[in-house]
Amino acid sequence: MKTQYIKFCLIFLGIFSANAQEITGIATYKTHLKIDFPKDSIVKPSAALNDIHASLLKANQKEYALHFSSSESFYKEVAKLTAPTAGSLGIISGMSVGGFDETYKNIKAARYLRETQIMGKEFLIADTLQKKNWVLEKESKTIGEYVCFKATFTEEVTVDKFNSNSSMYDEVKEMRTVEAWYTPQIPVEHGPGLFWGLPGLVLEVADGDTKILCSKIVLNPKKNIEINIPNKGTRITQDEFDKLKKKKLREQLEFAKQH
Questions:
Q1: How far apart are CA 78 and CA 48, in angstroms?
Q2: Domain spans of the chain?
Q3: Quick check: 138 and 106 in contact, CB under 8 A?
Q4: In 3D, which of 172, 171, 170, 168 has the Cα closest to residue 253?
Q5: What is the rounded distance in angstroms from the CA atom of residue 202 to the CA atom of residue 199?
Q6: Which of 31, 39, 155, 204 is most buried, taking the most CB atoms under 10 A from its CB?
Q7: Which homologous superfamily does the CATH classification assign to the domain defined by 2-258?
């Protein structure tokens, strides 16, 4: 098994530099978010809560398209039009049409641009691509028609945990482990969102409660692919954006407590 793994990697890594410049493609990804109500919640399960849970799950099941060349990529939510519906608590769901979150990566320049929003205001995050300390595993599996290998990285992150006593979020440090599956058969370093830096296209990612899975790949399409560079919104760094987002969340919680 070890010999086969080494041989497989040598074959595809050997053609990496020769073929990478010739490859363009479009990969379609679907995202899924696991949402569970706290087990110790004082709120009893009900039809209303089930409706909320179903609405949240549906809202977080999105489809994205990754347009890529050897050194650049453009990742954007696929727009979908759905009729607004009201749940049993009057919560409106199905109104999002997508297209509000776009990410451009340039691996050669080690930079990225991400167009996103906070409470309806547009921001353009401009920052440096940070390469993760990926650990390449021997484990393999097939996704569609592609043989994929497992890679992981672990890092310490600061997250906000809701404190039911204070009705606020507390900053807590915890370890985050990300699992990715990449295929050397498509020798580019791209992946969904800001996942990148592996010796092959990333087809699957498990990051906490979020799972991203590639459902379709079109290589070297006859029609030239479009790799757009986002340019709308107030320019800001990733760190500045994260701090602003946290500030707005705390302001909303304070407002909710006072009303």
A1: 29
A2: 2-258
A3: no
A4: 168
A5: 9
A6: 204
A7: Lipoprotein localisation LolA/LolB/LppX (2.50.20.10)
